[in-house]
Amino acid sequence: MSNILQVKRLKKTYGKGAGRTEALRGISFDVQDGEFLGIMGPSGSGKTTLLNCIATIIRPSSGKVILKGRDIAAFRERELADYRGKRIGYLFQEFELLDNLTIGENIALPLSLHGISENEAESKIKEISDRLDIAETMDKFPSQVSGGQKQRAAAARALISDPDILLADEPTGALDSRNAKTLMEKLCDANRDQGKTILMVTHDPNAASFCSRILFIQDGCLFHELRRNVRTEENAAFYNRIVQVTAQLGGGSANVL
Amino acid sequence: MFFKQIRRSAARNRKGNGLYFASLIIAIIAFYTLLSLGSQDVMRFLKTIESDAVGKLLNLLPIVYGVSLFFVFFMVYFACRYQISRRRKEFGIYLMMGMKRSRLLGMLFGETLLNSVLSLVIGIPVALFLTEGISLATAKIAGLGIIGHTFAFSGTAVFWTIAGFVLVQFISMALLSVKIVRAEAGVLIQADYTKNQSVSAVGTNAAFFFGGCILLISGYYLAVFGLKGLSASMTILTVVLWILGTFLMYRGLGGFLGKSIRKSRRAKTGLWTFTARQVQENILSQHKSLAIASLLLMGAMACISFGIATGAERSSDTRSVDFSLFGTEEEIAKILSDKAISERIQSVYPLYLSDVKEQYNEGMPDEFDLSRLKEVLRQVNDAHGLGKNMADNLHIRYLVNLTSYNRILSGLGKENISLSDGEVALFTSFADEGEYGRILNRAIQKGITIGIDGEEYQVRPQLYTDNVVADRSIALSVALIVPDELYGQLAASREPYCTNAQIKDSVIKKMGLMQAELKMSELLSSAGIEYDSYLGGIGRTLFYRVASSYLTIYLGVLLWLIASTVIGLKYLISQRENMHRYQILSMIGADSEAETKSVKKQIEIYFLMAAVPALISSIFAVWAMLTNFLHIPYGTTVTEIAGLCAIVLAVFVGFEFLYIGIVKKSSGFDD
Fold this sequence. Notes:
The complex is a heterodimer. Chain A is α/β, with parallel strands linked by helices. Chain A contains 8 helices and 10 strands. Chain A is globular. Chain B is 68% helix and 8% strand. Chain B is elongated and about 100 Å long. Chain B has 25 helices and 11 strands. Chain B is α+β, with helices and mostly antiparallel strands. Chain B starts with a helix and ends in a 5-residue tail after the last helix. Chain A binds chain B through residues 55, 57, 77-78, 80-86, 90, 92, 96, 98-101, 105, 108-110, 112-119, 139, 141, 143-144, 157-158, 161, and chain B through 194, 196-197, 199, 262, 265-274, 277-278, 280-281, 578, 580-581, 584-594.
């Protein structure tokens, strides 16, 4: 398997002088094509900063983010828009659907932004909405559907333009456990059946147990890595391992005064 | 610390929101312009000769002021609301940090006070400057450049301007502050709050939309064709249809747009769907404001067109007589013996103008035969059938003696009339009134005769129009200028109607026409003689012209400013509430250029949504006003008026785009 994304010595600092905070302290890792990578860590560990650097929401202070051989830090406005719309898909914790557009219009928007009309993408939109079980919501507005359907619609919007990588920031954070499980299963299907590369930041060991590899970060540094044997290891067993690491990471006995 | 914070926040408000601050200054200018009307040149001048009418007008001002206060309140309210909606999060944080609600309230009012003071410091000089400009321009347009301009500063106007401004500003802030202070900190911190897209049945929306359109069209029809009789019930019905139609049309428009978006979006790319949905959402959630703004815009356009059309009335009046004195021969001789008066007077002569003796009146066809003239008038081919109408109503009741009329012509430096035997001339005061003079002139060109006392008299083929008395409101539709002998034979009275007097050219040269006339009026008044003056005549016409055109233009401009500001602010408020949508768009691949384009398009469409129906309605409103409520002004034709209204509407559209530009700049998306 080839590397689709390479993060090299990524640093991000906020503020100056005494108020200077290092959110990322030179993180390096690779993401392989078709991998489902989870990033976990306590609050303030830098995981969202990391995801935002990759998503070009913020610029790193130093280091490189290389997607399919190109350093995205060097992108200009138009290339960035292109990158965001075509090369990456972004799944937000709060869905972030445009509430004045119907679900169908929300899903078609990234394509429309790149010059593809709904007519041209009809079969694609139908296929993805069927796969994510939201076909019946297409003509409804976000306020008329459930949270789970909203997040699946957001996932459909993130995947519609066949991005190289799907970035997900706590995608189950605003969902109940049943809807969270459904969403994770759908993401897992997309990863397994279509070979979608997914990079997901999460707090939730349940959601993380669907990943094939998990990076744990703390204080802006890579702290630990867990790999799951996809063929032999069940979600439940992987979940237990995750919980163990999370407990240590979240403080463990070493942090008890 | 607290005062420093107020000062800083107030400064930030002004810097960050030009539209808000501009609204406050507009409010001040609007109030001062209206309130200082009494001290403007034209009004000061009119007061000297038409004090009663001006007094009545000035008594009306408090009502107009009250109406302006009401409208300006809306503008200031929306400006403040926009300002506050931008800072909801900040207020939430203050409350979370433990700021007492009373202190927050104090802070808001402190800022309001500071901004009010600053707006007044800037606004009042600007208002003074503008009113001086208006005053000079009106005097110039009205042909009174000779009045003499004095700088007018009205303390009372300044006082009421400040009072009105502070009142609307504080009421607006009080209403808004109560909302903010009562809100939970958590709600305030959630700066972005969006309303759910309301989804109502397509059928209902279509019913509202088409129902509204039908009511509007019925309103248009009634306004143009149904108000001829000016019946109150019909007028009320028209206004109700008009208002109801506008509201219903906007109520259904959003849903109707939604349907067409669903239809058309499938073939569109880029941010087309987003832009269309944004516009639709604004219309859905603000259909009432849009309807009000559209009605205000319509009112504005109608007022301005009406005001300018009536202001365009021009008179080809010549100054033929300065004063007409009424009194016995002895009384007049006594007046003229006064040195101050006599040294200013160039010529004095009695004017012989009289009714025709009873037996020569109409109804005695053998004596006074107008049949030839009527026949010719009926043949005049004019579009409105005015010639026929004139023929049906033609009476000659008055006579002017030739010597008197020749004195008038001499005073004007014109050639005297010499009537040969069996010849008379025709006079009218209505030469400037539409087609009347033109048709009469055409008729007499054909060489007609009038039968008087069994004899045929040839009418000179020239119409005489120089006024015979000083007062313009004394008008003779048709009179005969006859030789003195014939006058003596036909006139009911042998006494002169009045004595006309003309001021010396040298005095006019020295003092200016108006001052010379005013001085003479003073002298005559103190001498206790009854008189009419040229100035009084002008004053009366000018007064009606200035009063109607000035006030309607004022109201029009005010309504326009308010409607446009309200539309702009309403848009900006909703844009601020939905700012996060643009972040989402960026995240899913929209570049900033596309977003800017979308915002600009939204602003344009949003304004046009209010302006286009207003423009259509105002065309019917002006049409209705010009056909039903008033005559076409003297000296102008329907085409001229229509052209003038078209220019006004075009200027209006131009200014609307200027306003759109300002709102685009304020949206923060301008390049």
